[in-house]
Fold this sequence. Notes:
Structural class: alpha+beta
Number of domains: 3
Helix content: 55-70%
CATH architecture of the largest domain: 2-Layer Sandwich
Largest sheet: 5 strands, antiparallel
Shape: rod-shaped
Number of helices: 9
Distance between the termini: 93 Å
Strand order of the largest sheet: 2-1-5-4-3
CATH class of the largest domain: Alpha Beta
CATH superfamily of the largest domain: PAS domain
Amino acid sequence: xxxxxxxxxxxxxxxxxxxxxxxxxxxxxxxxxxxxxxxxxxxxxxxxxxxxxxxxxxxxxxxxxxxxxxxxxxxxxxxxxxxxxxxxxxxxxxxxxxxxxxxxxxxxxxxxxxxxxxxxxxxxxxxxxxxxxxxxxxxxxxxxxxxxxxxxxxxxxxxxxxxxxxxxxxxxxxxxxxxxxxxxxxxxxxxxxxxxxxxxxxxxxxxxxxxxxxxxxxxxxxxxxxxxxxxxxxxxxxxxxxxxxxxxxxxxxxxxxxxxxxxxxxxxxxxxxxxxxxxxxxxxxxxxxxxxxxxxxxxxxxxxxxxxxxxxxxxxxxxxxxxxxxxxxxxxxxx
Length: 335
């Protein structure tokens, strides 16, 4: 294309002056110099136009021939690379080589510009990857971690990013089948968005994360790009709100009949006709009722989720209402 443009420019600069002179001559002939002169000049103009058309055709043909020789030269280089010989190499004139060199120089300039733009884009991606507050990792299908950012290492309890690269990401899932489900979703739709998962930190502690996964875009080359946002505290807050609503509802249902029972027990304890032994038993029941009332009050003031510490194994988890109602930072109350 560059060679054809060059040839057209040369032809235009050569023939356009001829056309201009012919036009001036025709005008001068119209001023009264004779019919014969006018016809001769018209013939001259026609010849110039015909020469222009012929030159354009030759330029197009020459461009095709040069392109053909260049293709033959490229094929010869391919043959040399395979260890084959070529019977005859195409020949070029110095002018042709000079024009080809110029075209290659322009193509190289364009390539360098595109390469610089690509490097700048890669640098922007790398900066975003490193500075992202969410944990990001690039993995292969088999679970090998190709790269990760500092936030990913911190969320999973690793001191250095290099330690993460020696770990298979499948080992971090509490339920390995959840990663398989993520991969299936990405294979089907191209992405998996806002999926809640449980991961296992390096110290063995479980955390909740919100995961997004897409196909890897690189560099470096990876099959999948995954983002983890730690939502452990949010999940704990949601759990506390759910327990608090349940505890408030239960406290309300318990408190109404409990008030009636305690009132009747108080009246019975103060009855003068009651014997000493019976009065002592009523006092014990009344004390137990008051303890229940304290528990009901605590159920309305839960501030955190604190479970009982069982000495034995195999027992279900139970909420320690007293400790869960203590303000954070207060020493535990005596039993």
